[in-house]
Automatic annotation (TrEMBL):
Organism phylogeny: Bacteria, Pseudomonadati, Pseudomonadota, Alphaproteobacteria, Rhodobacterales
Coiled coil ranges: none
Name of the protein this chain belongs to: Acetyltransferase (GNAT) domain-containing protein
Keyword annotations from UniProtKB, A to Z: Acyltransferase, Transferase
PROSITE patterns named in the record: GNAT
Length: 209
């Protein structure tokens, strides 16, 4: 491998994260749910780009999700209108409170492309409700593999949650990408737990001795 052990500089204005890839090769049993009485999951066929991006921000801004915000509108529209891509919205009563996106475009496989909750529902048991529905929806027809990836910018409970849900980790990668807050893709106060490191300006001596 090209990456040697030790510290490696991250370019100015960029973020680095460790990505863990996980997979499930047979359906896992659903785990017990609680606090799901007001929740329901709705399939949204061919959602509009504006609606989708608004929900994507609600769910992902705290974890610096940016890939679908950075995608050209026509490219995102093509993905969302693909019959093999399913976008589901989690509703808590009338409020839109979560996103589940399943991608069946690879034959025999389903990718858990996006999975997340609005901040108010994190830690309430809604994640288990959403994962149980994801398992029900993913394993269909000729699907033999269900896979997902998460990274160290995500909620710290995300990786343990996926492991408890029946996924197994099989690969790690380091991802380096422009900080979406400096690109104007997300507000500068998003993800306060991840320091915003701006380009430093080094000034010369004042000349006054």
């Amino acid at each position: 491998m090209d990456l040697k052990p030790g510290f490696h500089a991250v370019p100015e204005g960029h973020l680095a994260s460790v990505v863990t890839h996980l997979e499930m090769l047979a359906p896992a049993a659903p785990r017990p749910e609680h606090g799901a009485e007001t929740l329901r999951l709705d399939l949204v066929r061919s959602p509009s780009v504006d609606w989708y991006r608004a929900l994507f921000r609600t769910v992902g801004a705290d974890w610096l999700w940016f890939s679908r915000l950075d995608l050209a509108e026509e490219e995102l529209e093509a993905v969302l209108s693909d019959l093999l891509v399913e976008v589901h919205v989690l509703r808590d009563g009338s409020a839109e409170a979560g996103l589940l996106e399943l991608d069946f475009r690879q034959p025999g496989q389903c990718e858990l492309a996006y999975f997340g909750l609005a901040p108010a529902l994190v830690g309430t048991g809604a994640g288990r409700f959403l994962m149980n529905r994801a398992l029900e929806l993913a394993w269909r027809g000729d699907v033999r593999r269900f896979h997902v990836h998460t990274c160290t910018l995500d909620h710290p409970g995300a990786l343990p949650f996926y492991l408890r849900s029946g996924f197994s980790a099989y690969r790690r990668e380091v991802e380096v990408a422009p900080d979406p807050r400096l690109q104007g893709v997300l507000p500068r106060d998003a993800a306060r737990h991840v320091p915003l490191i701006c380009e430093r300006t080094v000034s010369g001596a004042s000349g006054d001795g």
